[in-house]
Design goal:
Elements (H helix, E strand, L loop, with lengths): L7 H9 L3 E5 L7 H6 L20 H12 L5 E6 L10 H11 L5 E8 L6 H14 L2 E9 L3 H6 L6 H14 L3 E9 L2 E4 L5 E3 L2 H12 L5 E6 L2 E2 L3 H8 L7 H14 L5 E4 L9 E3 L6 H14 L11
Parallel strand pairs: 1-2, 2-3, 3-4, 4-5, 5-8, 8-10
Antiparallel strand pairs: 6-7, 9-11
């Protein structure tokens, strides 16, 4: 089925000529935001940790990851996914690991989970130079989740939209080799209605986030639905309050409109999330991830929508 959006798989195949996967690297630094301020309320890092990460040695993590995915992919990104590897406390060691992994011939680049409020110029400068020296990509996977500041406060994100947008502008002006991928979550709670009920962002709130990120110089986006996962702050809230979650048909319809509002040259690196193992509490969707993605594509064609068709700067 012909796609109606610019996918990550299309991007890497066009650039590298082969299928490219991602190997998660765990530096075991944890989340600096969680240590400092309790962390984002939706998150439990263990729900994202692949089962092949059983070694502390970074090189062995890479080798195990390659072995795990070698039948599916020919080349790989080293993805420093878990926690905040570029926080002030972790960045020195993360850069040492980065300098080791970037030498592997089957490594096309590095990806780092990043917070816009914790990136330091000396780190950005080194990463920018590393990309130039090795002619390999370096991605900053910068979580935003929502451009609505009321939502950001409720989920304890730790920064507002303006500071995020200012960081994007600063990086693009001063460190042009770095690729910025923004994470967005649909279905986030916005506020308490009363002592029993929680209100989610409206459809308009969610789509406004898409409009906002499309107006700044990001290179890629990952869309997720909110998953209530075990071990997160939201797990307890879900048990104690009426905490609605998105239905799959609503999400499919929402994503069709979101893609049409996304600037056409932004790489859509993900259309939905998938929590690992038995960590997921809700939503309990019946359709598989593949089925939902196919339905998004099918419905867009039926509606004569495609990426950027409703984008207005």
């Amino acid at each position: 089925m012909q796609k109606t959006y610019y996918s990550f798989s299309d991007y890497v195949k066009n650039k590298f000529g082969v299928k490219v996967g991602k190997i998660s690297i765990d530096t075991d630094f944890g989340c600096a935001h969680k240590a400092n301020d309790g962390g984002c309320r939706f998150c439990n890092l263990n729900s994202y940790k692949p089962p092949y990460i059983i070694e502390e040695n970074i090189n062995k993590q890479w080798i195990n990851g390659v072995e795990n995915y070698k039948r599916r992919y020919q080349k790989f990104y080293a993805y420093f996914q878990l926690g905040t590897p570029l926080s002030p406390l972790a960045s020195k060691e993360s850069l040492l690991y980065a300098n080791k992994l970037i030498h592997f011939d089957n490594c096309v680049g590095l990806m780092f989970g990043a917070r816009s409020d914790m990136l330091e110029d000396n780190v950005l400068k080194e990463l920018n130079g590393l990309s130039s020296s090795f002619n390999k990509e370096i991605w900053l996977e910068m979580g935003l989740q929502s451009s609505n500041d009321e939502t950001s406060l409720f989920i304890n994100r730790g920064h507002n939209y303006k500071s995020f947008a200012d960081t994007v502008k600063h990086i693009k002006k001063n460190y042009p080799n770095l690729i910025i991928c923004t994470h967005v979550i649909f279905g986030l709670p916005k506020k308490f209605i009363d002592e029993k009920n929680i209100e989610l962002e409206s459809r308009e709130d969610m789509l406004q986030t898409v409009k906002d990120i499309s107006s700044i110089e990001i290179d890629a986006v990952k869309f997720h639905q909110l998953d209530i996962v075990k071990g997160s702050y939201f797990e307890n809230m879900y048990k104690e309050y009426h905490f609605p979650v998105l239905e799959e048909d609503f999400y499919i319809d929402l994503m069709c409109e979101a893609i049409s509002l996304t600037r056409e040259n932004i790489i859509i690196a993900r259309l939905m999330g998938d929590s690992l193992g038995d960590s997921l509490i809700a939503p309990n969707w019946k359709k598989s991830k593949g089925e939902i993605i196919n339905l998004i594509n099918k419905n867009m064609k039926l509606k004569n929508l495609y990426q950027g068709s409703n984008f207005i700067l």
